[in-house]
């Protein structure tokens, strides 16, 4: 295939005003895109080279903090509609009060909010802290 036109990015490589328009437009510190005093900061390269374990699907994860898992009554109700169970083991989760509980069930979890405990007792269910 014949290349008919040279790309703009290659066309202006040697010039003083590549992508700036007139040379006057690139004079101020507002031209640096929030980088500060014009310094190039290679933080991302350092991270990828020295600590690739910090990069994951969800971005960065601080190694000193535990990940807090929670589940609400709305999700528990949905689980119970699909699977008819008498006990739910939710070790490592804190149960929050959003939603309602329509089933009589025994819930074992790491923690419960006050409102969630009230709603569970109102639904004639039991809550046990593991």
From TrEMBL:
UniProt cross-references to InterPro entries, sorted A to Z: Rbsml_uL15_N, Ribosomal_uL15/eL18, Ribosomal_uL15/eL18_sf
Keyword Kinase on entry: no
Positions of the Large ribosomal subunit protein uL15/eL18 domain: 67-126
Recorded superkingdom: Archaea
SUPFAM superfamilies documented for this protein: Ribosomal proteins L15p and L18e (SSF52080)
Keywords: Ribonucleoprotein, Ribosomal protein
GO CC terms in record: ribonucleoprotein complex; ribosome
Keyword Ribosomal protein applies: yes
Protein name: 50S ribosomal protein L15
Organism: Candidatus Mancarchaeum acidiphilum
Native organism taxonomy: Archaea, Candidatus Micrarchaeota, Candidatus Mancarchaeum
């Amino acid at each position: 295939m014949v290349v008919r036109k040279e790309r703009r990015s290659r066309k202006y490589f040697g010039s003083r005003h590549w992508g700036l328009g007139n040379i006057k437009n690139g004079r101020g510190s507002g031209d640096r895109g929030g980088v500060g005093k014009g310094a190039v900061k290679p933080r991302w390269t350092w991270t990828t080279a020295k600590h690739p374990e910090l990069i994951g699907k969800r971005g960065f994860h601080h190694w000193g903090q535990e990940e807090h898992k929670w589940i609400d009554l709305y999700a528990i109700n949905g689980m119970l509609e699909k699977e008819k169970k008498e006990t739910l083991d939710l070790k490592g989760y804190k149960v929050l009060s959003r939603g309602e509980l329509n089933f009589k069930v025994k819930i074992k979890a790491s923690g419960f909010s006050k409102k969630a405990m009230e709603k569970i007792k109102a639904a004639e269910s039991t809550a046990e802290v593991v």
